[in-house]
Amino acid sequence: MSAPDNTKIRNDDISLGLLLETLAGASELPLVFHYDDRPVKAGYHVTEVKAAQFAALDCGANPEAWTEIFVQLWDVDGEDRAHMPAGKFAAIIRKVSEHVQLEESAKLTFEVSDGVRPMQLYCASLPKLRDNAVHVELAPRPASCKPRDRWLAEERSKAIACCGPASSKSACCP
Known about the structure:
By secondary structure, the chain is an alpha+beta fold. 27% of the residues lie in helices and 32% in strands. It has helices at 16-24, 86-99, 146-162, 166-172; strands at 31-35, 38-39, 45-57, 63-74, 107-113, 120-124, 128-130, 133-140.
């Protein structure tokens, strides 16, 4: 059993394919999701996996289109159960893929509820191997303004290009 290759994983939102690729090297290890500063209970259950294609206009009237995969987790206790092995989670996803086309590059969203509180949306971040388990932090999925997000990304790119290697700094950096 090899450790997940975390060099390919961003610390923010990850895709379904990247999650599955990471889990492949740790299929026998327990998969523990964390949300709201706590781990899911050992009896958690994957109740639904669905693929959706969206077409929309953002707040700047720009057309948007994307594919998203939703994994629904029911955070419940299971008598005498351990956390689901990473390989079992991957097998569930493969089974769904036999019936529903799941695009590996799709945005990945987790829907989590304990059966009492309303379902909440989360994005998955960097899977980490620790304490002989694979841990995946789920962060609340916030609303965003896509035109603003694009502008911020452009500004970051300009700053990186401007303040990159010493040879290019003289043109734009103090």
